[in-house]
């Protein structure tokens, strides 16, 4: 009836929103050493960005590492991307339209305030999530929630929610359970305190919000074998060089990295963890000619794709850390199409021929909004140079992140340079290319894509994968985007930690799974 090992549809390092190469990590200046058996001590981690809130319902997915020590999730993702039991032992859809989902809650679990976990506690969390501001609440909210018995929760939606299981993992925040007693009290306190069923609890006395977060181990945690440290500290360090230096000096055990410091981290003997999960390229937004740009012509959009030297960009800018991209999803994602790996080979002459056929033999000028973040800024210049070779003059409007977001989503630019974290196809439909997606501000719509997605949302997993592939094939054929490269998210770990591994399916090791080397 239930499945507890369904393949994770994607990982995220990414959120349901556009990201420009998310970085995260951790740190502390007051480490303690582990005991002789390798347990105890402090895990010091360094994050680039502080969370706006510690309440999972109000937390952006990109800052979920701050919730991981205190909040166990209903479902976990293992290193291969499989879904495995967490606070729930069984789960699955009980209908054939992905509208009715049931979970069986683990016995013997208590929250840090002593309250027991049961089905009613899960219902209280789902109701709390409905009022949350997290960027992932839409994956599961808006349903009817019912405790069938002490251990069983039933969720019923009016429309299909095929990603329910994925949403309830530690990656997507929605499955992190909060004590119902805390929710029934002053829930605003959860902004700066924790009340979870995880192995640690926030030490408010040692914590400085926005700067340093200290979590101490619980004596009554339900799974003590997976409680590897006495304390976890997370220090916010915005500068990548500062984080690397903290690793070198032993101040930090685990930290976020970036492309600019990866070689130095390798030379310093660090574990350098990277998985290509962010798709960089051009979003050709004016597909229907709303702004009366040449992009309304399919031949023009295809010409832009032929004009981009993906392999050259990957080799020159990313080296061993990246690869060429033709699709908006990575290869581990259900929906990725192997046959499209070379859909638009680099062919400037072909690009010029298509432009001439479309009536632009003399080229045209294309306004493009771009971010000033380092990777995006570099790629923007490369795109401009390569398009200039086929007669397209790119007018770059480069902006810092907040202004870029406004420009990209405001419906005034025919094209944008994007860095989008690969997500399950339904998430990308909601956020990237569906008719109501925020990053489809001109409302491009394709009947074939829409009808195929409608079928896929209600289909069994195997059938849905085939339908997702049809959607991705349609996007590539119609050249809605000009993807260029898959870029990684980096993390560094000291040799004092047991070997870590990452993959496209899980690009970051959850903090609670990190262990001392001995």
Shape: globular
Helical residue percent band: 10-25%
Q: How many domains would you count in the coordinates?
A: 2
Q: What is the CATH-assigned architecture of the largest domain?
A: 3-Layer(aba) Sandwich
CATH superfamily of the largest domain: Periplasmic binding protein-like II
* CATH fold-level label of the largest domain: D-Maltodextrin-Binding Protein, domain 2
Q: Biggest β-sheet: count, sense, barrel?
A: 12 strands, mixed
How many helix segments?
A: 13
The CATH class of the largest domain, by name, is Alpha Beta
**What quaternary form is this?**
single chain
Number of strands: 18
Mean pLDDT: 91
Low-confidence stretches: 1-30
What gyration radius follows from the Cα positions, in whole Å?
23 Å
Please state roughly what percent of the residues sit in beta strands, choosing from under 5%, 5-15%, 15-25%, 25-35%, 35-45% or over 45%.
Answer: 15-25%
* Ends distance: 41 Å
In terms of structural class, how would the helical and strand content be classed? alpha+beta
GO cellular component, one term: ATP-binding cassette (ABC) transporter complex
Keywords: Signal, Transport
Signal peptide: 1-27
InterPro entries: Peptide/Ni-bd, SBP_5, SBP_5_dom
């Amino acid at each position: 009836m239930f499945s507890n090992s369904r393949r994770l549809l994607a990982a995220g390092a990414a959120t349901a929103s556009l990201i420009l190469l998310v970085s995260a990590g951790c740190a502390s200046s007051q480490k303690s050493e582990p005991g002789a058996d390798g347990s105890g001590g402090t895990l010091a981690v360094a994050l680039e960005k502080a969370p706006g809130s510690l309440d999972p319902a109000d937390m952006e997915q990109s800052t979920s590492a701050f919730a991981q020590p205190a909040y166990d999730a209903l479902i976990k993702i293992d290193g291969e991307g499989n879904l495995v039991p967490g606070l729930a032992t069984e789960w699955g859809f009980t209908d054939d339209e992905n509208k009715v989902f049931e979970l069986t809650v683990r016995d013997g679990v208590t929250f840090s305030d002593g309250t027991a976990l049961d089905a009613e506690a899960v219902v209280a969390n789902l109701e709390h999530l409905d009022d949350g501001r997290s960027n992932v609440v839409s994956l599961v909210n808006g349903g009817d929630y019912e405790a069938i018995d002490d251990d069983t929760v039933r969720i019923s939606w009016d429309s299909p929610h095929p990603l329910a299981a994925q949403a309830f993992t530690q990656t997507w925040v929605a499955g992190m359970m909060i004590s119902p007693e805390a929710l029934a009290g002053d829930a605003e306190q959860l902004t700066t305190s924790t009340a979870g069923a995880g192995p640690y609890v926030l030490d408010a006395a040692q914590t400085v919000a926005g700067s340093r977060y200290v979590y101490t181990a619980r004596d009554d945690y339900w799974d003590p074998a997976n409680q590897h440290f006495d304390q976890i500290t997370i220090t916010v360090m915005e500068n990548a060089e500062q984080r690397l230096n903290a690793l070198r000096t032993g101040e930090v055990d685990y930290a976020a990295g970036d492309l600019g410091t990866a070689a130095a981290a390798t030379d310093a003997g660090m574990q350098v963890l990277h998985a290509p999960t962010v798709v960089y390229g051009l979003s050709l937004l004016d597909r229907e000619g709303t702004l009366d740009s040449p992009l309304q012509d399919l031949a023009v959009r295809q010409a832009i794709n032929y004009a981009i030297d993906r392999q050259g960009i990957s080799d020159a800018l990313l080296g061993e850390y990246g690869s060429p991209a033709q699709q908006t999803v990575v290869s581990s994602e259900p929906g990725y199409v192997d046959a499209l790996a070379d859909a638009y080979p680099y062919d400037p002459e072909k690009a010029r021929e298509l432009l001439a056929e479309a009536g632009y033999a003399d080229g045209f000028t294309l306004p493009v909004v771009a971010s000033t973040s380092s990777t995006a800024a570099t790629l923007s210049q490369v795109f401009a140079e390569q398009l200039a070779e086929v007669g397209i003059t790119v007018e770059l409007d480069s902006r810092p992140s907040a202004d870029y977001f406004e420009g990209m989503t405001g419906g005034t630019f025919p094209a944008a340079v994007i860095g989008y974290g690969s997500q399950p196809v339904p998430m990308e439909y909601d956020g990237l290319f569906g008719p109501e997606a925020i990053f489809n501000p001109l409302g491009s719509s394709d009947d074939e894509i829409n009808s195929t997605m409608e079928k896929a949302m209600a289909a069994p997993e195997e059938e849905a994968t085939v339908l997702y592939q049809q959607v991705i094939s349609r996007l590539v054929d119609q050249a809605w985007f000009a993807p260029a490269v898959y870029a990684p998210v980096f993390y560094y770990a000291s040799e004092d930690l047991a070997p870590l591994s990452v993959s496209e399916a899980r690009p970051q090791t959850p903090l609670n799974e990190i262990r001392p080397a001995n």
